[in-house]
Specification:
149 residues, alpha+beta, 3-stranded antiparallel beta sheet, elongated
Length: 149
């Protein structure tokens, strides 16, 4: 590992422990040249997932897009930031557990809706109305009936 201070490439690990998220390793390193310490994080490399959009365009998976959609759906609802982060983590874990290189956006949307349905009913309906592109009030009411059952 190259030292960020002097650029020397001979550094050694002086301490390792799991990071706060338990998904990576935090390593304290010491540069043998300048004697300065710095921290690195080691994380398992995941297979890049490509999302197949409704129009058949393909784009790299972007966690922030899921997070933004959920944030919009939960706006002014009694859902904490930690609950949203946990929901996104769960969706991401299920997505990567599919072990597919290409995943249709419909699969991602359904994963999000299933999680939101259990978390907060109004947020679920908001997300579903955008995701499923409700064309009229009747389709909206049909979705509401599913939630009420």
């Amino acid at each position: 590992m190259k030292c960020p201070f002097c650029g020397h490439d001979n550094t050694r690990v002086i301490d390792s422990r799991p990071a706060e998220d338990n998904c990576s390793i935090r390593r304290r390193r010491l540069c043998d040249e300048c004697g300065k310490r710095f921290t690195t994080y080691e994380k398992v490399e995941t297979i890049p997932v490509i999302i197949i959009k409704k129009d058949n365009n393909r784009e790299t998976y972007d966690r922030s897009k899921i997070e933004a959609g959920i944030l919009r759906a939960c706006h002014k609802r009694p859902v904490s930031a930690s609950q949203i982060t946990q929901l996104v983590d769960e969706v991401e874990t299920e997505l990567f557990n599919l072990e597919e290189k290409e995943v249709p956006s419909q699969v991602v949307g359904e994963l999000v809706m299933n999680k939101l349905k259990r978390l907060e009913a109004v947020a679920y309906v908001r997300f579903a109305s955008v995701y499923r592109e409700f064309k009229d009030v009747n389709t909206f009411l049909e979705e509401l009936k599913k939630v009420l059952e």
